[in-house]
Hints:
The complex is a heterodimer of chains A (107) and B (592). By secondary structure, chain A is mainly beta. Chain A has one domain. In chain A, 4% of the residues lie in helices and 53% in strands. Chain A has one helix spanning 33-36, and strands spanning 5-8, 13-16, 19-23, 27-31, 42-54, 57-66, 72-73, 78-84, 87-90, 97-99. In chain A, β8 and β9 (87-90) form a beta hairpin. Chain A starts with a strand and ends in an 8-residue tail after the last strand. Chain B is α+β, with helices and mostly antiparallel strands and 592 residues long. Helix content of chain B is 29%, strand content 19%. Chain B is built from 17 helices and 21 strands. Chain B has helices at residues 4-11, 17-27, 37-44, 75-86, 119-128, 161-171, 248-262, 273-293, 347-360, 383-387, 391-394, 401-404, 423-436, 509-523, 530-535, 539-546, 588-591; strands at residues 49-51, 59-64, 70-71, 100-103, 109-115, 145-146, 186-188, 203-212, 215-224, 237-243, 303-304, 325-328, 334-338, 344-346, 365-367, 373-378, 406-408, 448-451, 465-474, 477-486, 498-505. In chain B, the strands form 4 sheets. In chain B, strands 6, 7, 8, 9, 10 and 11 form a 6-stranded mixed β-sheet that branches. The longest helix of chain B is centred in the middle third of the chain and has 21 residues, at 273-293. Chain A: This is DUF8134 domain-containing protein. Chain A: InterPro entries: DUF8134. Chain A: It holds the Pfam family DUF8134. Chain A: Residues 1-103 form the DUF8134 domain. Chain B: Residues 137-293, 403-549 form the Nitrite/sulphite reductase 4Fe-4S domain.
Amino acid sequence: MSVSLRVLDDGAWVSVNDAREVSVSELWRLDDPSFCGCELPDFVVENVLDVGADGRTVSAKVYGQCIACGHAGVPGWVPVGRLREGEFVDIDRERVVLPVRRGDDSE
Amino acid sequence: MPTDVERWKSEVYGNEIREHLLEFAEQGWDTIPEDERDAWFERFKWWGLYHQRNGQESYFMMRIGTPNGVLTPGQTEVVAEVADEYARGPAENPIFGNGYVDWTTRQSIQLHWIKLEDIPEIFEKLESVGLSTQQACGDSWRNIVGCPVAGKDKHEHVDALPVAMELNETFKGNDDHSNLPRKWKVSVTGCREGCGQGDINDLALEPATKEIDGEETRGFNIRIGGGLSRNEPRLARDIDVFVTPEQAAEVSGAISALFRENGDRDNRYNARIKFLMDEWGAEKFRNVLQEEFVDFELETAGEDLRSEYSYNSGYANGGHADHVGIHEQADGNYYVGLDVLVGRMGVDDTKELARVADEYGSGEVRVTQRQNVIITDVPEEKLDALQDEELLDHYSPDPHPFMRGSIACTGTEFCSLSIVETKNRQVRYARWLKENVELPAGVEDFHIHLSGCTASCAQPQIADISLRGMKTRKDGEPVEALDIGLGGGLGENPNFAEWVTQRVPVDEVPGAIKNLLANFEERREGDETFREFVARTDEEDLAELVEPEETSYEDPMMHNTKRTWYPYAEDDSMDASPAPTHGDGTPIASDD
């Protein structure tokens, strides 16, 4: 089953199957001390740069900053949801710690 | 690899979108195939329609392009009528009510809560008086900006209005220029005060004089590649080209064609011409333009007037910083610039504006890049009676500096990109500052621009105080916050604000401004302006002068307003959203 994943409106949000699923301005806790040195960066999403799927996991590359220390940049791929029978299943991104995966190829 | 957007554009784009748009309008929003919605919403932008944010599906923002900000007699009334009839949403804004007109920083008009099903009627009404939404958004020539009193101003070097109108006529609906790699923002100015803000446009035509064949010729110098968005602000660069008013359209078309052929269509983040200018530099840009896109020899730049620029400059050099106030025109009549706080005006007030403009002036209204409006062509003998009109009690030609200097973008109320609430917040800020903060003696212009994100629609980097949407935690809870920048401005030597203090909780920003101004007054040398003070002060020292602090100001929108379907709804949760709705406003999901 094909799933369309896109970034739209100047990086404002992730579209999955032509529906808006992930928006900028969310606050994520990242399990990625290498991003800024904070143990769990408290990361505000300012722009979505790319989206891809690795198996059933939908991940995004985003620009933003850690609101604890101010470091800004692009962490690795961050999971934003899952695919179940071609449908997007949200995860509670603002309440869980999100792992960050390095590498540029999540397709 | 071309992006999805480029693929969609290659299939259907430009003028031909209209017939599809009208067909969908006829059949209803829900007849747009689900797997084609991203594509159609992207394309609809070219006809001025922007799908509102999450929670407001099936509602659109509509932008009407008014070249050079000019609304000819009769047009303002129609804008008010359209807003009254079609721009009313399912919930009310506590400050502005339901049904309002936004005057924008690009001298355009934005309406919200527009239903797709109403588009045919709206287009008919707008077009009956010569208004259009064509190319108001999308990857093409956007609304052309310039000095809003072009053709009437006493400070004019050359009348740029015919040039702006010729560019509009030539490049609106022009198939050769309808599908560019990205948006294309053009400024044409002939006045001495710099109010076209060419420095922050993709293409700027600025007043200049050039000796050609022994004759002093008035025309324009050309700058390319300005823009504020995405943490990548750029000032337009001088490409050493002068054009006469007669050459302006041909050379502008050549530059647009150069962009069309050389802009980056593989990466939308790198597509604006400012990035091509980064890559090429001004010299190569000029060479390519000359060799590949222009058939005659380009003149080198003439003598410019930049040393006289005062508009939005932060310098007190005797010129105007905005168009608010009563000013004599070249023909002896007057124009009256009214302050519209954050650019938003209710429909009844907009109707009044149309009436007043008709009764006292020529009926014409003009929009400025500071979100204000101007009534033109008022005979001197009618000025007193005009000033007695109730409308001017609310939209003053002599407002308090905090009211006069406020600009705000759309914000999370409707916009997908914004991180914070903006318009209502800036109204609350301005009112609190007016009541609680004294400006240092003699400071009459003090600009505070609030933008909800790095897209910079409120042009935050060129204000005395720049505010940009962010998040932070306060007492452990996530709250809306603002980065604070200082000392930006245009003028002879434009520069962008320094972002000196980050992530200030929104309820502490008024206190920060109060303390900053007190510190400025204490350290001020003579009658220097705030921008001059910032320029001579170290960035580290500036950060210490900001001092965020809680005050009597209370902010009712500290929470994540983006998580609401509409921040001012009684039940603002996403689940309570009525969207998407049919053309009559009834929810689609409840009966399908």
